Structures are given as structure tokens and as C-alpha cells.
Task: structure prediction
Amino acid sequence: MSGSAAETNYLNHQKGWKSWLITLDHKRIGLLYLASTLVFFLMGGVFALILRTELWSPNKIFLTADKYNQAFTYHGTIMVFMVILPLIPSALGNILLPMQLGTKDVAFPRLNLLSYYVYMLGAILALLTLFFSGLDTGWTFYTPYSIRTGTSTILVLAGAFVMGFAAILTALNFIVTVHKLRAPGLTWGRLPLFIWCLYATNIIQMLATPVIALTLFLLAMERVLGIGIFDAALGGDPVLFQHFFWFYSHPAVYIMILPAMGIINEVIPVFSRKNMFGYWGMAVAVFGIAIVSFVVWGHHMFTSGQSTTANFIFSLLTMFVAVPTGIKVFGWVATMYKGSITFETPMLYALSFLFVFLVGGLTGMFLATLATDVHLADTYFVVAHFHYTMVGGAVMAFLAGLHYWFPKFSGKMYSELPAQIACLIVFIGFNVTFMPQFLMGARGLPRRYYDYPPEFTTLHQISTVGAYIIAIGVAMTFWVLIYAIFKGKKASSNPWNAITLEWQTTSPPYHENFEVEPVVTTGPYDFHLLEKGD
Amino acid sequence: MTNVETGKHQYAHHFKSAYHEFDSCKVGMWLFLLQEVLFFAPLFVGYAILRILYPDAFWEASHLLDWKLGALNTIVLITSSLTMALAVNASQRGLKDKSVIYLALTIILALVFLIVKYFEYTHKIHDGLLPASLYSYEGTIHPKTPLFFSIYFMMTGLHGFHILIGIGVLIWIMLRAKRGDFGTDYYTPVEMTGLYWHFVDLVWIYLFPLLYLIR
Ligand SMILES: [Cu+2]
Result:
């Protein structure tokens, strides 16, 4: 209902906590996701700090080897399944997708709410293990160890299975929404690139998640019935588990990074005041990445004993990922070229993303190369590489998007300078944490041990200091945003002078998003068509 | 939620027409079935790999399954697909009683399938033809034969679970049909259930020869 006064919005048109728990409004569901994922993000972060603290010196400080195994398993499982996978698609995606499409809601609002509860159920199942015998398999659940270990593996498998179901339902919902509910005039060629990226992400979620779901189910059955399919002792094949696992988990990397790229695609043109360079190239590159992502999983298994031919083919195919990724990076840089760049917080995060993602991507080439990977596999080099893409890529982009859309969904402006400082702290802390890990990995230090040879002490200590710097930056970011929610200035409907549809309604938006259904007549980044004097 | 009146069914506020809503649901359902295909996929891949590795074991194990019961169940399910299609057709034409009867027939056939499956399972369990670690049947020679029964129970079990879910949904749809929820302008749930049911039948069409007919 678009009320008569501008004060009616989706945040206050219904009141009471019950109206939140049974809401069908995509923006409210998005906020529920946002709050939940951020809480889990802090939990995963605490586990990271525990790990980094233990690694301050060789030998035991306060964690036994077993407890250390549990801590990194929880850090990985929470961060991957509960935080980064749903962070951008389910939280920001839910809030923004219908608004950017100019529609009132996602195609199936009830299914959307159901997805949220299914996700929470899965998260709770996974966390319940904390109260039983914990987890120590690593987030990868490799057999045969995951079949034999005495920890609460079945519970976490059930949790990941259920969360996968939530991701599938959300993806299905979004795909139908993009196909069926675009505003008049919003042709495929006028879609914001964030939508393109979400769409490609959703396709990966739809096609890859069911595979991991069944694989985890079979692994649970290994423990319950001893079916032996993944168990060499019963005639099965543990490497088959790795194939199934990575058939999902490699594309899952793109479930994390494609929406991140989508955010960067929105932020860079807006803060450069320039049309996106090569719109179609940028859109097609996303699908290039999505398609290639399905045929490269074997690069995680170069040392698993798969055939040399398979290694060679997977290595070669992995190199192809660099092509569409290169197109993306080139497009962003070319968009900024000769633009009128301003350095508000979202743009600062976007620039951090560019740098960090480039490092993450290029070190990926070392790992994709067969000969070097045999040396680097399972060392800190791998840890540093995927943190540069997942944390440096996905989380930095998420923070860019969070600041960019914060005025829209909260209706308040955050204070620019503290947010910029926080961004700088996160960026410095991030590099201080993970740069040394490249060095340690290159010297052959294996990952996942609580102990290490004393000559690595200095590098490990630098890394630990970096982790605490990140924690300070994140805490400051949270403080800036929470302060803004209560004390911030009221945001105008379009503080960044952006063109995409979500900015063409009030901040915060109405319950049904727009007062009248918008009609689209220009592309999403046609800043040259705006009146002079912006 | 504001809904727009059109006869008995109200379509949701973000759709432009009843057809718009129906069309969107249909796309959603096809996507759901697509992910179902991939959900079953690891089992089919696992089957293929193990069969290529141990063809003799699969040959030996397949002879321990009763192909006549499998064939009976195949006929039962194909017939249920027919009654389901007739139920969808009846609701599209607004024939309430016919639609209820065909839905009831579909449910009965699904139950027959599960009963046959139950007898097959109890027989296998009694003989000790069980997943690898529980296998205790003495009459087989090839050491990898127990793996076939792991695959067999996982595949048919997962399929049976889908049948079970299908029965639940069919009962719910039948009660709604009886209540008069559907008519010529609104039969989305019946049609969606039909798509699901045909998919579940189709999976069995693959399972039957792959498991029972290795000769
Ligand atoms: Cu990979």
C-alpha cells in the first residue's frame, strides 16, 4: 500500500516483532538474512581470531591439536556455508532484486520466507554440533576421515544439506522473478549488471547445489549404514567423494564471487559518473565464468591420484577462467578511465576489491599450473589465495554494497569519514594478514597445523597482528552503521545520483516498493543523459 | 497482502493476471525439476563408475533382484502417470468429480507401488542382501557385489521417498479439489503436482532397467 504520506514505508507499515517473523516482504526477509549472516560472520570471525592467536608462536599456547582442528573446521564451515554463500545473494539480493527490476516482490514470496527459515534451521543444526562432540573434518568433509571420526559429523551434514535446499529455493525464486517480473521497458539489455550477476549465480546454485546435497546425504549414509561407495575399505572410492564435492564446491566459489562482481559493477559506474565500459561484454563474461566453473573442479585434486591426463585437462580448462575474469577487470578499469571519480566509502571498497581480487586471481594461476601446484597444494599459499578471493573479493564487495545501499534500506546516511577510515583499516589489516601467508606457503609450510617450525614465527606473528587489525576495522564499520541507524541523518531518495530503479523511490521504500509502477526508458548507467549540474 | 479478485482464486499482488501467475509457477516448477535431475545425478554417476569398474559384480547382483516385481511396479507407475494426466485434464475442464476420482486412483496406484517395494525390501533384508557393511548373503562370489546393493538401496530409497512426498501432496490436492478450489480459471496446483509426478515416474523408468535388467 502506498500510503498518502511519505512516512509510510516497509519498516513501519506493520509493527511488532511478529510482523517481522511472518513477513512476506522481500526487503524485510532480506534484512532478516542480513542480520543472521552478520551474526554468523562475527562467530566465524571469533574462530579466526582464536586460530590466529594460537599461531602466535610454535607449540601449544592454549589450544590442543584436537581443539585447533575443531576451531578451523568451525571457522571454515561457518564462513562458507552460513556466511559467504548467502551473504550477497540472499541478503542484499533479496532486498534489491525486485527493486532493481521495478516490481513489487519476488515471484513467490511465501517460498522466499520459507527459504529463510530453512536456512536458519540448517544453520542451527550445524551449530548444534558445538554442544555435542564438535567437528574436526575441515569444511571439506573428506572421506575416509569423515566416516571414521567420532565427532558430530551427521549433524553438520544435515545442516549443510538443509542450507543447500534454502539456496536452491532462493535461486529458483530469483530466476523466475527475473524472467517474469521486469518493469515495462526493462529489456534484458537494460538490466543492471548486478541482476545479471545474481542471475548467473542463481543458475549455478540451481545446478550445483543438488549435487553436494546428495553427496552429503550419501556421506551421512556411509556413517549410518556403511554403504561403502566412498569407503575404500568396503570397495568404494574416496576420490569419487572428492569429485562430487568439488563439482559443487568449485562453482560455489563463483556463487560467492559473481554477486560480488555484481556489486562492483554497480558501484564503479556510479562513482565514476560514466557508462559501464562494454556492457554486453561484462554481462556475457559473467556467463563465461559460470559455464567454465562447471568443468574445472579437478584442479583441487592434482595431488589426489587422478590420472595425468585428467590433471592436464583440468589445468588447461582452469586457465580459461582467466579470460572472462580478465574481461571483467578490464571493464571496471576502463569504466573509471576519464571518469569523474569520487572516493566515498563504497568506491573505496570497490577499489580495494580491485586490488585484492587481482592478487587473488593471479595467485590462482600459480595453483592452476600443474607443476607449481604440486609444490603449493595444501600449503598456506592456498589459504592466502582463497582468502584473497573470498574475503578480499566477496567480503570487500559486500561491504561496498552494504555502504552503497545502506541509505536505501535504512533510510539513514552513515557518516562518511569514519566509514572511510574503517575501510582503510580493513584493507590494511587484510593485506597484513594474508601477504605473509603467501610467503610461508611458497616456502612449503602446510596448512591446518597448530604447530610450525620456529623460523616461521615472525611471518605468523605479522599475520596474527593483521587479523586483529581486520577485527578493529570490522568493529568500527559495525559501529558506524549501527550509530547511523539510530542517529544518522535522513537519507534522500537518491543520495548517489544513480540511475537504477531502486533509487527512484523513497528511502526507505514503500511496502510495495514504488508508488506507481516505473517505466524504464534508459540503460542502467546512462549518466551522460542526466541533466548537467548533478 | 492485497489480492485482486478473479472468481474463486485471487492472484498475488505482484502479478498482472491469473495467467501471469500460472506461467510463473510453471517456470518455477520446471526449474525445480531441473534441480531434481541434478539431485539424482551423483547416484547415476556413482552407478556408472562402479558398474564400469565391476561389471561382473553388477551382473551377479542384478540376478538377485526380482525383475517381475520390478516390471509390475513399472506398469503400476506408468498407469498412475496416465491417471494423473487425466486428473490434470479434468481439472482444466472444470470437471470436479472426475478430477477427484483420478487423483484418488493415482494415490492408490502410488500406494500399490510402495507395497510391492515393501515386500521386495523385506525379502532383501531377510536374505542379508544389504548395503556393503551390513551385507551377509552367502551365495554370491564377486567381492564387490555388496556395493551394488548400496547403490540399489540408495537409488530406490530416494525414489521411494519422492513417491512418499508425492502421495502427501496428492492427498492435499485431492482434498482441495473436493472442496472446489479449482476450476477452468485456476488449476495451477494440480498441474504442478502432475509435472512432479511424471518426473518421479520417469526416474523409475531409468531405475528399472539399470538395476533389474542387467543380463
Ligand atoms: Cu576451484
User: Anything to note?
Assistant: Residues 27-533 of chain A form a domain with the Cytochrome C Oxidase; Chain A fold (CATH 1.20.210.10). Strands of chain A lie at 412-413, 489-490. The longest helix of chain A spans residues 65-101.
